[in-house]
């Protein structure tokens, strides 16, 4: 059931995952063109899904990285690789996730993800 | 580097994951038409990838389920949901993985996975 | 913003779209394994998205059919072809949507959708 | 049946959809490497498909945007968002199509489309 | 350019590829719901594309099998594996195509294709 | 079965396919982050798969191009279009492969591939 605290919980979770990259939704195309969807996503996805008990935060991060790799949603994958470091995944674990993906989603699919991971690891200094 | 023990390690891992569903490759279309690929997969994927240190077994299982859901490879997804129970994922954790996928890969994508999960949970009696 | 009436609005919309196929969520795998996601979907997707002003209902139905065809989520596509008839799309319009898809998503993709459309049109007697 | 006027009809439709962005096929890689496919597409897709009666032009545009979003064919999506404005879709309707897609094709899929929509709306001054 | 002989050429090519499985379009959902698309496909795809010089027929068949495997359009893949035997591909070559796909499109993707290939090879007695 | 010469065979094949673009794995993100996967790919994919008898080298190249087009793995597609010229495919054959794909994977999918082919043909001076 929707709860009036979902939005606040979602923003807190989003801040935790994105760390210093967090910005309160200001400049994205989504926030500009569809502010109510942007809010709905903060409320529903970050507030009601990512905060659910029953699955460790680093596990949620790992499956998000796996799915975004498989679907090749590359800008989001880059963001969630960086989020993964804040969610408790090590550089080593993220690398292992992408190695594993090479065989389930195909080698080219994984190679593109490694390119982004390299960029993130450099930007984050890990 | 390839190691002459990879195939044995792979068959052991495959047996661990598939438990009572394990069969030594006999009847599948892959084993029949391309026995060397079937062996290569046992050796490389189960022997050299699934056995890698650096990522917990249940985490490997979770990301496999996430990727197969995102790509909708349904027969393989069904098998890996069952494998997940042997890899240490609880019914609750598998359910949470699929809930999470609804928002990253779309609701219809997750709904098809829930159908298979229901079948597996009934077959495995969990 | 979430509204306490969203769930009721969603169930009303879902009933309108599914007509005589409507059932209050009882038997699906989703409702059984993840009742809170099932409720969230009724509340968010049917209550807060399908009911939005700014896009005619039959247009929402048309784009849902197009996307499900492109992604080949076939069980959901079948349901939404049937929903389309309740949302104001004619058999002719649905057929035209699928013809159009043949060129944007590839012929095989459209051919599978025509198979489902044929089944729906027979079941619905149109 | 093929008709000798299909190519002319196709070029007229393409011009209508692309407006001031129209160029008679000159510089694209497709026109250069495969001029007969380029002509075939003008003739078949724009001349024989987009001109079919039975589905309003703005509806054809909407389903094209939905399918290209779902498949993430981003350069073509950008072009067809711009075409949509010429086909009778408002900025508001295009935004609603993309909001709707977030739930059927996943949030990351829609976020990438919003980025392109923002660019188009700026370029077209709407 | 469209030619009045394209439809006849297309039906001849389709007959060559499908051999004893050929039927003149009668019972398919596509032919029933959208007879003009069905005719357009015979005319354009089989008459104007498959008949193009510049690529050996067995090569066209091989790339069709590869693409349908990668996209997992399974009913069409099954048909085109059978067509491949009529286009000059051997059982061995088709098997090699699917082995190759395991690494480019992921193992699960290839495994589903092997299942269909096994069925075709049994039905065709090769 | 794995063979200690697989890695050497793989590097030789990779050199043949990539010609003057060959570099011994040094600078890629994959080689940097996951050197053992990079070696495994050289050993398994280039050493044990591309070298298999039973399918002509130019046919392996053609199906790789087709699959990468269908899946839109664009950086890899660009590389394999260039590799195709070294594997014995002519510019004309590669163009025909992409024309064929327009109908099986959708026109937008092929259009993106033509863009890359144009770049490769210019870079390679063919």
Your description of this structure?
Six copies of one chain form a homohexamer. Chain A is mainly α and 126 residues long. The first copy, chain A, has seven helices and no strands. Chain A has helices at residues 6-18, 29-33, 35-49, 57-71, 74-86, 91-104, 107-124. The N and C termini of chain A lie far apart (39 Å). Chains in contact: A-B, A-C, A-D, A-E, A-F, B-C, B-D, B-E, B-F, C-D, C-E, C-F, D-E, D-F, E-F. Chain A binds chain B through residues 44-45, 49, 52, 54-55, 59-60, 62-71, 92-93, 95-97, 99-101, 103-105, and chain B through 44-45, 49, 52, 54-55, 59-60, 62-71, 92-93, 95-97, 99-101, 103-105.
Keywords:
126 residues; 7 helices; mainly alpha
Q: Could you provide a short overview of the structure?
A:
Chain A is an all-alpha fold and 126 residues long.
The end-to-end span of chain A amounts to 39 Å
Quaternary:
homohexamer
Largest interface (C-beta under 8 Å): A-B, 29 and 29 residues
What's the number of extended β-strand segments of chain A? 0
Low-confidence region ranges of chain A:
none
Order of helices and strands of chain A: HHHHHHH
- The average pLDDT of chain A is 94
Strand content of chain A: under 5%
Structural class of chain A: mainly alpha
Secondary structure: helix percent of chain A: over 70%
The coarse overall form of chain A would be globular
The helix count of chain A comes to 7
Rg from Cα of chain A: 15 Å
């Amino acid at each position: 059931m929707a709860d009036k605290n979902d939005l606040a919980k979602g923003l807190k979770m989003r801040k935790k995952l994105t760390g210093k990259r967090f910005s309160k939704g200001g400049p994205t195309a989504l926030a500009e063109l569809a502010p109510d969807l942007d809010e709905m996503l903060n409320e529903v996805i970050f507030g009601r899904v990512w905060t659910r008990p029953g699955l460790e935060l680093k596990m949620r991060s790992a499956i998000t990285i796996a799915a975004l790799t498989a679907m090749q949603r590359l800008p989001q994958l880059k963001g969630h690789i960086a989020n993964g470091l804040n969610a408790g995944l090590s550089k080593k674990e993220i690398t292992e996730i992408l190695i594993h993906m090479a065989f389930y989603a195909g080698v080219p699919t994984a190679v593109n993800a490694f390119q982004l991971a390299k960029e993130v690891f450099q930007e984050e200094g890990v």
